[in-house]
Design goal:
Elements: E1 8-14, E2 20-23, E3 29-30, H1 42-53, E4 59-69, E5 75-77, H2 80-87
Antiparallel strand pairs: 1-2, 1-4, 2-3, 4-5
């Protein structure tokens, strides 16, 4: 028996800058997790992933990550790895980490 589908976000790294990026609902890439598209349909998630895998001139290693909706109905990671990636490098405070 297969596991039921859970909401996902599509994430990757920007090819040139290396930043963590997320697919937004209008098809553009964003560096803001809160602006990511929370995909609740398995077929849409798979189609988005297939499309992202063809964007090798812009992104690296796209994948679907489990997510949940926060109180504002924005995506929030459900696994510590994705929360860590959203905050950025851990060696010192710079960039995104200044906001946490």
């Amino acid at each position: 028996m297969s596991r039921p589908f859970t909401p996902k976000i599509l994430t990757a790294n920007h090819l040139l800058e290396g930043d963590v990026i997320y697919l937004a609902s209008r098809g553009e890439w964003t560096r803001e997790l809160r602006a990511a598209w929370l995909i609740i349909d398995e077929k849409e998630a798979n189609a988005a992933l297939e499309s992202a895998q063809r964007q090798q001139d812009e992104i690296v290693e796209p994948y679907l990550a489990d997510a949940v909706a926060d109180a504002g109905k924005r995506p929030s990671p459900s696994h510590f790895r994705e929360a860590f990636r959203a905050r950025g490098p851990s060696n010192y405070k710079h960039g995104k980490q200044e906001h946490y």
